[in-house]
Amino acid sequence: MPRPENPHLIDTFGRVATDLRVSLTDRCNLRCTYCMPAEGLDWMPGEQVLSDDELVRLMRIAVERLGVTDIRLTGGEPLLRPGLEDIIGRVTALSPRPRLSMTTNGIGLARRAAGLAEAGLNRINVSLDTIDPKTFLEITRRDRLSHVLAGMAAARDAGMSPVKVNAVLMRGVNETEAVPLLKFCLAEGYHLRFIEQMPLDAQHGWNRGEMITAAEILSMLGGSFELTPFPAARGGAPAERWLVDGGPGDVGVIASVTRPFCAACERTRLTADGAVRSCLFSNDETDLRALARAGARDEEIADAWRATMWGKLAGHEINDAGFAQPIRPMSAIGG
Ligand code: SAM
Ligand code: SF4
Question: What pTM was estimated for this model as a whole?
Fold first, then answer.
């Protein structure tokens, strides 16, 4: 189908991508079992990673020419990116100013939260799958729970509220953590979101029969809390939300596998080495870094980005017989 003249990131299914996820680095200081192997991965060589100027240029093109209104910094672990505060300052100086958020494992956040907020970061999601130190060690292979908890409190104190918490439940590991995690988050004023485990780990260990589904999570929570559907419309947000015990606290479930929300997807993704992807699960990507390093003008880069998004598939196909896991793991794409 020929693409109509339109400056924005439209696709053939009528969706418009306004939400950009940018991976700042593929490196990480944790080794979550659902994400990467104990020994880590072969990190991208430094010269392959976008420089700060290249990164900010691509974000500027997204905001100025492609209609992107929201940018989320992720990775890998974005706090490991040198010069992060400077990048945040440059992105929030763009016009129109994008809303800027970050997903982090929270290590080192305690001492940086105030500076990140001051640089312009609006919101933060911290990943936390358990409040039990032993289970935290088992999942992340690092004994750092107290660092993460301190980071979350610092983010809240720095005004990045509500702090959102992302949790992945795994059978036989932390499945009994759903209720304690929610109690903890309600008490601290954090907004908890459970994410169904997806086939995006580097070691290809995901198993459909083993994953904890949204239905199971809701039934576990339903034993301790009264959940009522959240009154506000969901829009393009991936989380389905429920009020807990009448509110104001709430809980969300991102059921990417059992209740896919691809039809309302508003996302486009940029990897740390400058590839644009229309979906976490894409098998195609477009190398914008090569274009930029070959001297392409802003509008040429914008056109390549538009063409990639025009080719976005209807859905991720995890539930189809022929599903093939993407070659890049989540940590390299940006989760
Ligand atoms: N390192 C940061 C962190 O952990 O928040 C940012 C990158 S991480 C890839 C982004 C999010 O993806 C985290 O909330 C993590 O729990 C989630 N994630 C990683 N692997 C996943 C998987 N296989 N299925 C579902 N979520 C996953
Ligand atoms: Fe690192 Fe985040 Fe992956 Fe955990 S989920 S290993 S913190 S990138």
Answer: 0.96
